[in-house]
Amino acid sequence: MAAIQWTGPFRIQEYSCHVTRNRELRPPDAPGLYVLTERSWSRTPTGEANILYVGQARYLRYRIGQFLSELIGFTSDDPADKEAYQHRGGHQLWHRFCVRREIEPADLYLAWRAEADCLDCAQAQLAELVPMQWRSSLSRACGHHTMRTNLTNGRAAPGAADFHMKKSSIW
Fold first, then answer.
1. pLDDT digit string (tens) for 112-138?
2. Domains (ranges, CATH) in the chain?
3. For the whole model, what pTM was predicted?
């Protein structure tokens, strides 16, 4: 079983400075997961990286673009969730993390992965690592099986307990 590779993490500032030179590093137009962390990591995101957000998308490139737009401040001045233009998670992080703590979004780290047996389970497992103050109810519980996805190799892990979170739309 080959390990599924995460693309990144990239410090947002460094990534955005080399987009045309490294076009092959853009997110794919495919389903997958993306994470935002406060610190860099290797191989698989961990709690030590301070995971701030875990998202899932049908089209990673499009959704990450919406996320980054709100995250870097192209969003409403009103911090209420309903005031997000395109991505509530990016909007919330801009207001509640970046502005409130005076942290530049460009100093945060972004990564994505387009493959997993079950994106819902992989997202739920990553969401467990997000500190409580940054958690949202955006993860979906998998209704297809009781296995959890191993974040290192993207395969379902037999025998792991179900992870149940409040189900709501992530789109």
1. 999 888 898 888 889 899 887 767 655
2. 7-157 (3.40.1440.10)
3. 0.80
